Amino acid sequence: MDRQILTLAVPALGALVAEPLFVLVDSAMVGHLGTESLAGLALASTVLVTVVGLCVFLAYATTAAVARRVGAGDHRGALQTGVDGMWLGLALGAALAIATWAAAPLLVAALGADGDVAAQAVTYLRWSAPGLPGMLLVLAATGALRGMLDTRTPLAVAASGAVANAALNAALIYGAGLGIAGSGLGTAVAQLGMAMWLVVVVARGARAAGARLTPAAGGIWSSARAGVPLLVRTATLRVAILLTVWTATGLGPSALAGHQVVNAVWGLTAFALDALAIAAQALVGQSLGARDLARTRAVLRRTLQWGVGAGVVLGVLVGALAPLYVRVFSPDADVQRAAVLGLLVAAVALPMAGWVFVLDGVLIGAGDGRFLAWAGVATLVAYVPAALAVHAWAPPGATGLAWLWVAFAVVFMAARALTTGLRARGERWMVVGA
């Protein structure tokens, strides 16, 4: 079982890390165009990350559904589910691409931008919008392959896409002289190329299994219905993150800058823990599809041990090394102090985060999306008073940021740990069969 977990988790981690390289490459190249261009990219990328992030259910729901059918021995049905998920991703991506292109000025204005910064942000959004169908196809196809216990193909595609994105951006931004428009176009082309690669892989498997490649209204509707609860869950997480940023803003510039450092490090550790959650999704889905409750419990126990253990290791590294690596982010002593205090709180909470992320993966793999949606709402309700209390009473600066991370990394994560932990102790989530 350990070998299976690592075989799935390690390539998944590589694919998860490869995706943020798109933003890093864009930032590095656009940054040389000027301050207005980089600021515009920051706003535009925030919009895109939010849109795509809300659609991550395409990967999660497809992984769970495909894994169940594989476990039940229905490979044709598994691949048909993957194909239907991809059609849903394509349709949703096309609609969002049109909406994003049309609403780009309004979206940018809503973020408070104007003048040259707004113009740059709108340009990037409009040139990158055609890539949205590709981005959502990548999510759906990746979910289908994960359900088939294949995390290596998505890794190869993500790594190749990151390299292609860098080359395209260099050629279009500087060689063709398109500026920030070249960055948006390069990202769109790279994402569409990744999508085509993954679609070919899934389509070949579907044909070999006898599944059809044409869209089925019933299958698409089933995929959409399964994804709605996960969309609600993701939305609650996004609201919690936005509330945290709003609270950090009220603590002053040094606390806000320190929060950016803590959040970046927290996000990096989340990739490692999410990779274990992806392994849990696939293995739990397959064992439930095979009606093997004993193995489902075994996967739950072992992945939780891996998650908590990884959280302990990451927590020690994050906390012990914090005074050293915060200097890379800022030379300001106040920012460094705020970041170190926030990171120490985050480090203490990482073992619990490992527990939470793995349980999320287990319940997603079981198709328990409706419970996760309600649990997301409940945990958000528990977190809001804590965040508002920090905003109202915490002192500005480093101490205030430490209290904010107590609210987020301890209170919010504890609420998630409690709700998902109680659910996992019972048996209502263990619905067997395809």
From TrEMBL:
Pfam (any one): MatE
The protein's name in its UniProt record: MATE family efflux transporter
Membrane topology: Multi-pass membrane protein
PANTHER family: PROTEIN DETOXIFICATION 44, CHLOROPLASTIC (PTHR42893:SF46), PROTEIN DETOXIFICATION 44, CHLOROPLASTIC-RELATED (PTHR42893)
Swiss-Prot/TrEMBL keywords: Cell membrane, Membrane, Transmembrane, Transmembrane helix, Transport
Transmembrane residue ranges: 42-66, 87-112, 124-143, 155-174, 180-203, 239-258, 264-285, 306-326, 338-359, 371-394, 400-418
Similarity comment: Belongs to the multi antimicrobial extrusion (MATE) (TC 2.A.66.1) family.
Record has Calcium as a keyword: no
Compartmental location: Cell membrane
Transport in keyword set: yes
Highest taxon, organism lineage: Bacteria
